[in-house]
Amino acid sequence: MKKENNFNLYSTDEFNAFMEFVKSRGVQMRYSKGQSLNLEKAEVGFVLSGLLGIYYKGTGKFVDHAFYGMPAMEDEKIMSTQPFYCRTESDVIIAKIPIHKIFEISSPDQVYRGVVFSALIYSLIDKLANIYDVRHGGNGYKVVKELIELYLNEKHVTQGLANYILKRTNLSNSYVFKILAALKKNGYIEIRNARLTQILKPLPDKI
């Protein structure tokens, strides 16, 4: 897992120091696939490892996997206004810590903790907003092209390319299969047993 964009609000050293603080002051919990995080009110969990999937509430469509250090909360008042929810998709390790501990300051050099935490929240919102705009922006082929490239770099893919795309978008089955068939026929991609094995040449901007 890589850390997400920090909007230039903190340095790599500050992020690493923050995560060490979370690991040392928080309670590390291991969750099995499908298990609820069961976070308490005013408690936040930071993803350390494993696959924590993010899904849209309305459609149940998959958005993305959590990035390293991503904060997760289950407070009803907070999450009732959010259009997504999280679900464990493998063994996941999360460090849980009360939010107030992050903002406790016993010395001036600890102010960065609140800045890092806030930036991680903004990173999450920005990430989800960008993904939503791309996948629901009306350009179906642009969405398919992006997901084909993501599929090839995804380490934990267990499904075929078409299902991977359909799970993440509102595109129809016929449209997705039509695009993939055209790309394969024109020598852009290689597919074996429904899985993308390689991109043979740069994908076109239009098809």
Topology:
Elements (H helix, E strand, L loop, with lengths): L11 H14 L1 E5 L11 E7 L2 E5 L5 E4 L5 E2 L3 H4 L4 E5 L3 E7 H4 L9 H24 L4 H14 L7 H8 L4 H13 L3 E4 L2 E5 L8
Antiparallel strand pairs: 1-7, 2-5, 2-7, 3-4, 3-6, 8-9
Organism: Scandinavium goeteborgense
Protein name: CRP-like cAMP-binding protein
Model description:
It is a single chain. By secondary structure, this protein is α+β, with helices and mostly antiparallel strands. A hairpin with a 5-residue loop joins strand 3 (52-56) and strand 4. It has helices at residues 12-25, 76-79, 99-102, 112-135, 140-153, 161-168, 173-185; strands at 27-31, 43-49, 52-56, 62-65, 71-72, 84-88, 92-98, 189-192, 195-199. This is CRP-like cAMP-binding protein. Residues 159-204 form the IprA winged helix-turn-helix domain.
CATH classification, class level of the largest domain: Mainly Beta
The residue ranges in which pLDDT falls below 50 over 5 or more consecutive positions are none
Content-based structural category: alpha+beta
Number of helices: 7
Strand content: 15-25%
CATH superfamily of the largest domain: Jelly Rolls
Q: In the residues, how many domains can be counted? A: 2
Radius of gyration: 19 Å
Fill in the CATH topology of the largest domain. Jelly Rolls
Mean pLDDT: 84
The side-by-side strand order for the widest beta sheet comes to 1-7-2-5
Secondary-structure element sequence?
A: HEEEEEHEEHHHHHEE
Residue share in helices? 25-40%
Keywords:
207 residues, Arc Repressor Mutant, subunit A, 3-stranded antiparallel beta sheet, alpha+beta, Jelly Rolls, HTH_46, 7 helices, 4-stranded antiparallel beta sheet
